[in-house]
Design a protein that fits this description.
The chain is α+β, with helices and mostly antiparallel strands. Helices cover 25% and strands 35% of the residues. The chain has four helices and ten strands, in the order βαβββαβαβββββα. Strands 2-3-4-1-5-8-7-6 form an eight-stranded mixed beta sheet, sandwiched between helices. The chain has a two-stranded antiparallel ribbon with strand order 9-10. A hairpin with a 2-residue loop joins strand 9 and strand 10.
């Protein structure tokens, strides 16, 4: 199938990870299923905690500024605390990527692959959906044969972080599609 099958998770950028984890686990009834500290590079990084309640999975991220501003801190400065991206679950990430790319969708890097201890995890990330916006899409494939990943993989998160840090440092201002293209519907005001 070349279409998303559901929402895998939503990612929130926060200024206080401990407070956000407390909110979700002690008040809202979620359970922490995965966490990683100092994910990124020697230039900047983040801490992340993933919480889940039923099928609802939310990744919380707090930036660490080092030699440069963390891409999480940069996101919060530009857009405020809140949703940075949402992940769509897919059965065949390569097929979905090919289909989307045939329509002009641009990704910030290649497919990321890793294992979480339960099964393989494949992820790929688009550029932001809208000009001057920070929200982007992640494609996530968790099933492969009889195996299914349940959590996250530090190496794929670090790889995404490096892609975002690279674009931040070079001032890339790219969107998921070329809105100035002749094939994109133009906005008319009535």
């Amino acid at each position: 199938m070349n279409h998303p099958t559901g929402i895998d998770h939503i990612t929130l950028c926060v200024e206080n990870l401990d407070a956000a984890e407390f909110l979700f686990t002690k008040i809202l009834g979620f359970e922490t299923i995965w966490s990683a500290r100092d994910v990124g590079t020697e230039r900047s990084s983040m801490d992340t905690v993933v919480v889940q309640c039923g099928a609802a999975r939310i990744a919380l991220m707090q930036g660490h500024d080092k030699a440069m501003k963390s891409q999480i801190s940069d996101f919060i400065e530009r857009h405020g605390q809140g949703v940075q991206h949402f992940a769509l679950e897919v059965d065949d990430i390569e097929a979905v990527c090919r289909a989307w790319e045939s329509h002009g969708v641009k990704f910030s890097g290649p497919v990321k692959e890793g294992r979480d201890g339960f099964g393989p995890l494949k992820q790929r990330f688009t550029y932001p959906l809208f000009p001057s916006g920070g929200l982007f899409i992640e494609l996530t494939q968790r099933e492969h044969g009889q195996e299914r990943s349940k959590t996250f993989v530090r190496s794929t998160v670090e790889s995404l972080y490096k892609d975002l840090e690279r674009d931040q440092a070079s001032g890339v201002d790219q969107t998921i599609i070329d809105y100035d293209s002749s094939s994109t519907p133009s906005t008319t005001h009535h």
